[in-house]
Design goal:
With about 425 residues, the chain is α/β, with parallel strands linked by helices. It has 3 domains: about 55 residues, no CATH class; about 200 residues, Rossmann fold, CATH 3.40.50; about 130 residues, NAD(P)-binding Rossmann-like Domain (Rossmann fold). It is about 30% helix and about 25% strand. It contains 13 helices and 21 strands. Helix 3 links the parallel strand 6 and strand 7. Helix 2 crosses helix 3 and helix 5 packs parallel to helix 6. The longest helix has 27 residues. The structure holds thymidine-5'-diphosphate and zinc ion. Zinc ion binds next to loops. This is SibM. InterPro entries: Methyltransf_Zn-bd_dom_put, Methyltransf_Zn-bd_dom_put_sf, MeTrfase_14, SAM-dependent_MTases_sf.
Amino acid sequence: MTTEIAKSVTTCRVCGAADWQEVISFGSVPLANAYLDKPGPEEAYPLELISCRSCRLLSLTAVVDPQALYRDYAYVTSESETMTHHMRDVVRLCRERIDAGGLVVELGSNTGNQLQLFQQAGHPVLGVDPAQNLAAIAERRGVPTVADYFNEKVATAIAGEHGRASLILGRHVFAHIDDLADVLRGVKALLTDDGLFAIEVPYACDLLERVAFDTIYHEHLSYFLISTLDRLFTRHGLRAIDVRRLAVHGGSVLVTAARMGSRWETDERVGELIAYEKSERLDTDARYEQFAARVHALRRELTELVRKEAANGKRVAGYGASAKGTTLLNICELTSTEVRFCTDTTPQKQGRFVPGTQIPIVAPGDVSEQPDLYLLLAWNYAEEILQREAAFLDAGGAFIIPVPEPAVYARQKVRQ
Ligand code: TYD
Ligand code: ZN
């Protein structure tokens, strides 16, 4: 199947301006979640980051056809301890404000594990996710799911059939959507008068501070500041009423919005973060130039480190065949010559290959020979993984943690 670039971005999807700063270009890179059944010719697409000088949305230049990206999607929400703990926090935070027993709708609901927690707290729930394979899994676990994209049309139909929602939640999906206006019209059609729209997105401040260049891939069309989201919501008759910084996925924010005229007061955290963004000069070209320079330096250092270890006879493997991992390996031009295999707990990925690299993905237990060194491609789970791999570390194994600068983590010593 040929994947199409649906369009090249010309005007800003938040503010409509067309004045872009070119931040960084990684050349052509394959799609991060397009794991291969066997290595072979692959398509690659331009991966370029630009910044809107008017609202400071960070955007990719290319929008890949979502049909091709999401119909049969290999990304399965992690059931790791870190993520389950986080999802419980999301339930707790949202339930501080929403009606007991109110309908909760989630866009990009994946296999339904977040909604199941709302269900257990006594809420009727409905998932909306275009990936038919994942919607079927969610249905089997008892989470009703509409296998479609969330937009005005679908939201209006849901409101007609199920009534209006007290909470519409979108975790790590908003940055994947090109037509944000259609989604926000849908939100307004479906939300009760004082209902809440809560989104969790990677935070652009964290991307810059952590030099998390591997979170830049084709699925992530947008990288948001709070000031940018605030402007988007205002344009669509909504307003941000609260924001929380969260550790998940390398630094995210949970932003809660409500209708412009609703009863909610705006928490002071919103204004504080907007002021912080200004103090960090995130409204200037210079800050993005500095980021690009750090990315180039990190890429060089990391590639050299891995090549040096491999050349010294070390068996290097990847830990977690994450989408970030695909991006990192491709951008650093690392292949099966340096990284022998990647371990991953996701059955849908095992037995396949990391796009663009010829690196095979194996189940953690299937490792016939232990590596000497793991490149931590799921660095967002570093704490949990380093604890779990205590025996590997005790036996003299080590991890390379790639960001914000390459660091080797071993039992006795921490080398930079
Ligand atoms: P994830 O962090 O969800 O992000 P993304 O794909 O968006 O970059 O991916 C983590 C991957 O790592 C996922 O495929 C599951 C895998 N994984 C392991 O193999 N072992 C682990 O202990 C953990 C926490 C994750
Ligand atoms: Zn803009």
